[in-house]
Design a protein that fits this description.
With 234 residues, this protein is an alpha/beta fold. It has 7 helices and 10 strands. It folds into 2 domains: 2-93 and 187-210, ATPase, nucleotide binding domain (Nucleotidyltransferase, domain 5), CATH 3.30.420; 95-182, Nucleotidyltransferase, domain 5, CATH 3.30.420. It has a 5-stranded mixed sheet with strand order 3-2-1-4-5, sandwiched between helices.
Length: 234
């Protein structure tokens, strides 16, 4: 099985190539230069493996949530490759990818994933380790104020930038349900590739037309009038 994976949903930019269980990855934390980095990363991985896009079994991408512009970059590149090579697509949640990374690095089975969504909100999700060791969503992914999150009466380990930005609020809200936390988790294409390989085996790919980005927030920008009103209140 051969899968190309890519992600640009946060300040991290990465691409990975999954070949029969082996994963090679290019990863760099470089805000605002994803458009310059992503294609060279992909080209390098494909050249080293001596592969052409037509030889891939699928392409996976971090479909969000995350930076509106970042998610669109990965989506656009995915669409170009998938259309050109007639490939099935696996959209992978960036929150699932972060959770999967934690499941592989720790022994925790329940993960509270919180990523800073700006505008005084976080992207929030609860994931658990399934019988095969992969991240399984419990409930739904949401965008909301940190004070409104619901840990579903579970005890878990917290990860993601939301725990850095809203440490006191989340710690108070979760209280004894929070074992500990690590804010230094970013989505990586290697984890997206791993989750995509599971989806391919389970026949859970979609056509490129169905592979849509996930923003969670329906409204990503305030109008001029709203910004002026907000400024007047300060």
């Amino acid at each position: 099985m051969k899968i190309l994976a890519l992600d640009t949903a946060t300040e991290a930019c990465s691409a990975a190539l999954y070949i029969d269980g082996d994963i090679q990855e290019r990863f760099e934390i470089a805000p605002r230069v994803h458009t310059k980095l992503l294609l060279p990363m992909i080209d390098a991985l494909m050249a080293e493996a001596e592969l052409k896009p037509q030889q891939l079994d699928a392409i996976a991408f971090g479909c969000g949530p995350g930076s509106f512009t970042g998610v669109r970059i990965a989506t656009g590149v995915m669409q170009g490759i998938a259309y050109g090579a007639d490939l099935p697509v696996v959209p992978v949640s960036t929150l699932a990818a972060i959770s999967q990374a934690c499941l592989q690095k720790t022994t925790h089975d329940t993960i509270f994933t919180a990523v800073d969504a700006r505008m005084s909100e976080i992207y929030w999700a609860v994931y658990q380790r399934d019988a095969q060791g992969y991240a399984e969503l419990i409930g739904a992914e949401k965008v909301q104020p940190a004070s409104d999150i619901d840990a579903l009466a579970l005890t878990g380990y917290g990860i993601g930038s939301g725990f850095q930005q809203y440490e006191s609020v989340l710690s108070e809200k979760l209280d004894k349900q929070l074992i500990a936390y690590d804010a230094d988790y970013l989505p990586r294409s290697a984890d997206i590739a791993l989750l995509a390989s599971v989806a391919v085996k389970r026949n859970q790919t979609v056509s490129v037309e169905q592979a849509m980005p996930v923003y969670l927030r329906n409204k990503v920008a305030k109008t001029t009038a709203e910004r002026a009103a907000l400024k007047a209140q300060k």
